[in-house]
Amino acid sequence: MILPIQQQEFDIPVTLADQPDLLDIPNFYQHGTGNFWVAVVDGQVVGSISLLDIGNGQTALRKMFVHADWRGRERAVAQQLLQHLVQQARLQGVRDIFLGTTAKFLAAHRFYEKHGFLLIDKAELPARFPVMQVDTRFYHLPLAASAV
């Protein structure tokens, strides 16, 4: 589900080989306060979201994708995924969630901002934040002040 969204919808020249995290989700994401969740409808994955523990009570939101047929306020797949991630992060004692995204994901920018993420400069990211090559916009959600 992720590769077609990246490659076909947004014309991002990325391959599975460029994303080794997708080939080893348990070892890459599922440790510390991190995890990887999917939304499944009738046995089909329609959405994904992950949290990468970068230490110090800080995390990176990664791999948030929703299949085109399941996007929008009516279905609320993205909102449910994000709400679950934030709830789980709070239970784990996470203080901050950071994310990087591409300038092409305009709807994602509006979505993150609507849910309390603040646009920040790249220089404001924690040193351990894994900046991806395509990332040009960065956001921060301080959980203590979040109302997601």
UniProtKB/TrEMBL annotation:
It holds the Pfam family Acetyltransf_1. InterPro entries: Acyl_CoA_acyltransferase, GNAT_dom, NAT_camello-type. Residues 1-137 form the N-acetyltransferase domain. It comes from the Bacteria. Keywords: Transferase. PANTHER family: GNAT FAMILY N-ACETYLTRANSFERASE, LD18367P. This is GNAT family acetyltransferase.
